[in-house]
């Protein structure tokens, strides 16, 4: 039995992070032995502007055993195969960052190196044409990846767009049904143990004192526990990621929705467009250093794809992370632990991976500091990897003009990023690492999409006969195109699927 | 990239398996390009009694080189190995096997070893390696190739024990027969000329006075490190503080029958012995501390230690583990030319392949190769250090109390990355995994648990699966393993070519 398991776990805050953890704890621990209690302030009733996710979220849903059809209905979800980037390095540019690789090695040589060699010989193939999910995205198609691993139709993964508020509500119902105790209330005081500085209890506005062994801070940017009570500092990344505001709004569907998140570069930031089943969530992420809130609002309102639903809402944020995410008996998740703008749809992933690490390193009643140290090391790696990848989009913005773009094009990069870019610029080599996002395929998509051209290519590519190589590439491109042509449209697929009785495709 | 200074000529200077593997791999990747490859062969340092043991990856490398397994094994008197057995490292504890395979699936998403730790704490667990099919098969004198059932249960691999001289001959003959590489034999090298402008190697003089020029020089000369160490003066960073043994006696004994599908490492007061079965003989090594045991005494005590009559042919060499940054200027040291490993865990060939696989994907475009050099040194150095860390554990975690050499090893400070790894495993059985590791999670679990590093606590999620259910699953695994092993044949039945 679990005499070593903490008896009382208190989660403060019920956003996506809070509910993802609450659901995980409910799933894993017998609630009669381990009490999990979530405290959140009253429901605010915000309409979600759309959340874009990564394929890993399917592992999470599967872990809980959610039914995919039910989940999609409950959260207004659509499928996602890629992010479509518009106007980033040059006005009129469109490229995809897909959930899949580009091509396959030819005679053992990485496909991208073959592509570079073809280009050096004057054969300019569009790299997107070799990615099944990119082509499907462009054609507004969708179907589930094939289970036949020899088929081109198995060479991708998928994620969802959904309403994050509805997702949190859905997880709440799921958890409460399984015994999770939720309390509505606001914290007015935090009491620390005088001898070791651990959090002892929270005092609610109702006067109730909530004791616990482990406190999870999901209170958002306010970071009531880790920041205000325990005084753990924040590492600011605004120099590299200067955007600090967003105007967000929903608009009506102008057309059929398709399976991509769209990110369009704008004068002082970028605009997201996330299709849900019943509307489009959109918003303009901008830097208050380089534009005004009024101007940003105008930019957003001039670029809606359908009739506005209500007024735009202003969201303030700051890029960076908590210096120590797990400190003493307090573990911060979600915005309390860090924020990276949603350019690469990493927000849910960051909560999910933190939940995973925490479940893997879950402390006993007596907390071993080694577990906290390792948790913090793992979380650090994740944040830093994503940060570098985001910075790349800004920095490699080619010919864009404007103060924001001038700043990011000329700023000093983190060493971890400039080293990666150096070897890529030289020869298209992708530095590999074990932990954290993103895979080499993602780097290739973004490097090429942002028009970073390597000066050379791997000499191994010269070991293949040029004719064989070009024919293999052409055949692959045609094979992808002809297969995509027979796929159903995304809009029809989602409509049919979410109206089907049930399915087990999570 | 600059067309004028493009890399056109690779010169490999070396001997034995380092030379032939380097030349074969580079030929395979570049022989249809404009790059010329020259292999300068120095006299062999291999003795007739030497054995090369490999880890599990060698099979894949041979596949890339199109070296057919059956004929290679026949010529090289080779045996398969399912793992390595360690005897006498942990006080009175029974021997354990480091299997070249995994231990079966997780239970309710929690890694299997966590359940084992709980059972162990309750005094209810059989030895950890009884849950490994590789270890069980090896222990029963059997060998196997995975079928579908086994593939669903675990990833099971194997390595080889190869006759060193014959292995080198096979590699050399295949390379020369395939063509595309200029082969020059020399009794030694003379002056190495360096470009006064940047210090790069311009040419290497042969014994006949002829100079071989090139754009990129690969040093495969072994521990002599003729180019990287001697010519380029890359400093050697000693690793001897972590490896107490400085002498290696190599000997041979009669073949074992039936042939065991594992090698055996046995600790004794002043070092350890290794036994590697070949078809026609048994390779033997004594690795020891010279200050405690003279070469003569080592030679005299070997038959008793091994329990085998030994042939009169033996040789003794020094062992001094240490590291040189592998790529300096236009010179790349691979294998021992860069890094000399302790003989434990048979990592020599793996370290060679580690360098060669990175070199293949980072062969520089032109003479301005700073970017490739930086990336290569970063990846390869961390890969080599992680191999070293694995080896250190055999010494650090020993429980031979009261023997000076082993007592010192237990007390020594280990590299930070390893100290952290040990700390997290000791705390909760959590494995810290770094970039560029050859040994993966199951290898480390086998090492730590085998040496008796039992975590202080296990994952609390383990408790959510009822004990009766866990006991049932563990029993099911043991039954599966037992039934599979009963169907297996001795290794000899898998030899397709006789030596």
Gist?
The complex is a heterodimer of chains A (506) and B (499). Chain A is α+β, with helices and mostly antiparallel strands. Chain A is 35% helix and 20% strand.
Strands, helices and their partners?
The complex is a heterodimer of chains A (506) and B (499).
Chain A: E1 8-12, H1 16-28, E2 35-40, E3 51-52, H2 56-64, H3 68-75, E4 78-80, E5 82-86, E6 94-98, H4 111-120, H5 132-138, E7 159-162, H6 164-177, E8 181-184, E9 187-192, E10 199-204, E11 209-211, E12 214-217, H7 224-229, E13 234-236, E14 245-251, E15 260-266, E16 269-275, E17 280-286, H8 293-302, E18 308-316, E19 320-322, E20 326-327, E21 330-332, E22 338-339, H9 347-360, H10 369-395, H11 403-410, H12 415-427, H13 440-449, H14 466-485, H15 490-498
Parallel strand pairs in A: 1-2, 1-12, 2-8, 5-15, 12-21
Antiparallel strand pairs in A: 3-7, 4-7, 5-6, 9-10, 10-11, 13-19, 14-17, 14-18, 15-16, 16-17, 19-22, 20-21
Helix pairs in contact in A: 1-6, 1-9, 9-10
Chain B: E1 9-14, H1 16-30, E2 36-41, E3 51-53, H2 58-64, H3 69-75, E4 79-81, E5 83-87, E6 96-99, H4 112-121, H5 133-139, H6 148-153, E7 159-163, H7 164-178, E8 181-185, E9 189-194, E10 201-206, E11 211-213, E12 216-220, H8 226-231, E13 237-238, E14 247-253, E15 263-268, E16 271-277, E17 282-288, H9 295-306, E18 315-318, E19 322-323, E20 327-328, E21 331-333, E22 339-340, H10 348-361, H11 370-396, H12 404-411, H13 416-428, H14 441-450, H15 467-487
């Amino acid at each position: 039995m679990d005499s070593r398991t903490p008896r009382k776990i208190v989660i403060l805050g019920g956003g996506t992070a809070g509910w993802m953890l609450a659901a995980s704890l409910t799933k894993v621990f017998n609630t009669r032995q381990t009490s999990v209690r979530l405290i959140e302030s009253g429901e605010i009733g915000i309409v979600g502007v759309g959340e874009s996710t990564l394929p890993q979220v399917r592992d999470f849903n599967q872990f809980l055993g959610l039914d995919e059809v039910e989940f999609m209905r409950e959260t207004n979800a659509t499928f996602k195969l890629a992010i479509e980037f518009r106007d980033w390095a040059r006005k009129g540019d469109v490229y995809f960052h897909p959930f899949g690789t580009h091509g396959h090695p030819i005679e053992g040589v990485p496909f991208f190196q073959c592509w570079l060699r073809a280009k050096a010989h004057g054969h300019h193939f569009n790299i997107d044409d070799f990615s099944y999910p990119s082509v499907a995205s462009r054609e507004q198609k969708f179907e589930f990846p094939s289970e036949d691993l020899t088929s081109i139709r198995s060479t991708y993964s998928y994620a969802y767009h959904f309403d994050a508020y509805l997702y949190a509500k859905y997880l709440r119902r799921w958890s409460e049904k399984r015994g999770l105790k939720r309390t509505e209330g606001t914290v007015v005081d935090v009491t620390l143990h005088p001898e070791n500085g651990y959090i002892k209890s929270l005092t609610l506005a109702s006067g109730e004192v909530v004791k616990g062994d482990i406190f999870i801070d999901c209170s958002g940017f306010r970071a009531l526990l880790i920041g205000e009570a325990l005084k753990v500092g924040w590492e600011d990344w605004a120099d590299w990621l200067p955007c600090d505001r967003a105007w967000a709004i929903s608009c009506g569907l102008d057309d059929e929705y398709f399976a991509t998140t769209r990110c369009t570069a704008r004068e002082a930031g970028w605009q997201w467009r996330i299709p849900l089943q019943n509307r489009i969530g959109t918003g303009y992420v901008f830097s208050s250093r380089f534009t005004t809130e009024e101007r940003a609002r105008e930019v957003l309102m001039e670029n809606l794809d359908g009739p506005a639903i209500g007024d735009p809402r202003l969201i303030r944020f700051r890029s960076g992370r908590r210096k120590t995410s797990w400190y003493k008996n307090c573990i911060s998740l979600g915005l309390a632990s860090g924020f990276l703008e949603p350019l690469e749809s990493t927000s849910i992933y960051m909560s999910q991976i933190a939940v995973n690490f925490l479940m893997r390193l879950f402390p006993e009643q007596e907390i071993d500091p080694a577990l906290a140290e390792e948790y913090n090391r793992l979380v650090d790696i994740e944040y830093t990897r994503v940060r570098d990848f985001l910075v790349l989009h800004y920095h490699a913005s080619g010919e864009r003009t404007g103060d924001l773009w001038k700043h990011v094009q000329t700023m000093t990069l983190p060493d971890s990023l400039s080293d990666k870019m150096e070897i890529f610029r030289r020869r298209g080599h992708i530095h590999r690492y074990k932990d954290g996002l993103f895979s080499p395929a993602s780097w290739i998509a973004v490097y090429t999409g942002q028009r970073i051209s390597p000066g050379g290519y791997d000499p191994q590519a010269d070991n293949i006969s040029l004719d064989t190589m070009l024919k293999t590439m052409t055949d692959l491109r045609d094979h992808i195109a002809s297969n995509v042509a027979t796929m159903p449209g995304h809009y029809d697929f989602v409509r049919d699927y979410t109206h089907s009785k049930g399915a087990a495709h999570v | 990239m600059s067309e004028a200074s493009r890399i056109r000529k690779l010169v490999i200077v070396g001997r034995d398996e380092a030379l032939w593997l380097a030349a074969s791999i580079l030929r395979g990747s570049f022989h249809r390009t404009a790059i010329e490859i020259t292999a300068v062969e120095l006299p062999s340092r291999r003795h007739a009694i030497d054995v090369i043991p490999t880890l599990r990856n060698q099979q894949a490398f041979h596949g890339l080189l199109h070296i057919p397994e059956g004929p290679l094994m026949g010529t090289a008197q080779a045996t398969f190995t399912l793992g390595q057995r360690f005897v006498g490292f942990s006080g009175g504890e029974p021997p354990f096997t480091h299997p070249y395979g995994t231990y079966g699936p997780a239970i309710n998403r929690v890694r299997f070893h966590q359940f084992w730790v709980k059972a162990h704490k309750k005094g209810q667990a059989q030895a950890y390696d009884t849950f490994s099919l590789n270890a069980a098969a090896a222990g029963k004198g059997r060998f196997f190739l995975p079928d579908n059932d086994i593939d669903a249960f675990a990833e099971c691999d194997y390595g080889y024990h190869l006759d060193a001289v014959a292995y080198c001959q096979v590699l050399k003959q295949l390379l020369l027969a395939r063509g595309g590489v200029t082969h020059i034999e020399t009794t030694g090298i003379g002056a190495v000329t360096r470009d006064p402008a940047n210090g790069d190697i311009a040419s290497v003089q042969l014994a006949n006075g002829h100079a071989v020029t090139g754009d990129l020089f690969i040093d495969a000369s072994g521990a002599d490190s003729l180019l990287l160490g001697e010519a380029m003066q890359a400093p050697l960073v000693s690793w001897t503080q972590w490896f107490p043994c400085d002498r290696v006696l190599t000997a041979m004994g009669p073949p074992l029958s039936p042939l065991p599908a594992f090698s055996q490492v046995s600790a004794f007061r002043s070092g350890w012995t290794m036994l590697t079965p070949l078809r026609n003989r048994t390779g033997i090594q004594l690795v020891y501390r010279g200050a405690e045991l003279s070469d003569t005494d080592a030679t005299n005590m070997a038959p008793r230690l091994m329990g085998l009559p030994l042939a009169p042919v033996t040789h003794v060499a020094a062992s001094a583990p240490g590291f040189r940054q592998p790529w300096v200027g236009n010179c790349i040291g691979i294998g021992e030319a860069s890094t000399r490993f302790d003989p434990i865990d048979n990592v020599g060939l793996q370290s060679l392949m580690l360098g060669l696989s990175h070199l293949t994907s980072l062969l520089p475009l032109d003479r301005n190769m700073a970017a490739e050099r930086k990336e290569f040194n970063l990846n390869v150095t961390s890969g080599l250090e992680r191999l070293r860390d694995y080896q250190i554990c055999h010494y650090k975690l020993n429980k031979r109390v009261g023997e000076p050499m082993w007592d010192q090893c237990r007390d020594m400070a280990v590299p930070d990355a390893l100290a952290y790894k040990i700390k997290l495993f000791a705390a909760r059985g959590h494995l810290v995994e770094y970039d560029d590791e050859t040994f993966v999670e199951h290898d480390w679990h086998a090492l730590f648990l085998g040496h008796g590093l039992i975590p202080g606590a296990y994952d609390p999620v383990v408790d959510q699966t009822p004990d009766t259910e866990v006991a049932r699953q563990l029993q099911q695994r043991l039954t599966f393993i037992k039934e599979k092993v009963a169907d297996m044949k001795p290794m000899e039945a898998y030899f397709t070519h006789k030596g």
